[in-house]
Description:
- GO terms for molecular function: DNA binding.
- This protein is α/β, with parallel strands linked by helices and about 250 residues long.
- The protein is built from 10 helices and 15 strands.
- The model has no long low-confidence stretch (mean pLDDT about 90).
Amino acid sequence: MLTSQRKRxxxxxxxxxxxxxxxxxxVELGVSEDTIRRDLRELAKEGLLQRVHGGALPTSPALxxxxxxxxxxxxxxxxxxxxxxxxxxxGQVVFxxxxxxxxxxxxxxxxxxxxxxxxxxPSIAMELMAHPEIEVIMLGGRLFxxxxxxxxxxxxxxxxxxxxxxxxxxxxxxxxxxxLATGDFEEAGVKRAMCQxxxxxxxxxxxxxxATASPYRIVGMSEISGIVLPATTSPELMQPYLDMGIALTLx
Length: 251
């Protein structure tokens, strides 16, 4: 079988099964595991999948830059934002991540809500200018332009001084086995720190992020309290999280 034919077969399996197991594919295609791993490396370089131990998972379209992500599933993100905003109670201190879905959360908050929002996102802070009763605490650091968020040692040091009620986390990938992930090492570290500094972590996951993987793991699924998902999410995709005891909110 030609290399191009193997790669087409691998991508067909990934679309059908949601994962590739290298040992299984080496048997099915009659080639060595090294050959399958080489094919997976080349497909990963093309951005077509995310390699993981033993095989590969679908990559996330949410790895695109901020401007491109604004065009992905905007209706899902607006609905998720409204559902998440309803969880914020007066007087709470909440971490709010950067990103397009968290922007929708801020836009859905009641104008007269009294609360404190801590964020490392300049764009989220600017959105909060329309909420005069919300105290805004900006976390400093180096600006990561791809996601328009601050990262680095200064950001982590500031997070360590805060204990929040809830962290609303944005991610690029959600997978029951691979966990929560994003596309930048330092950004993953900031998200992990906010998760550890909050009593509860709620993940905002639009449809394109589900059952995908990204290069940098944030935390495993056991570290979060709940996920806000689109109402159109299939029962098959939701069941693994329900089995883990994670609260799911359909938006």
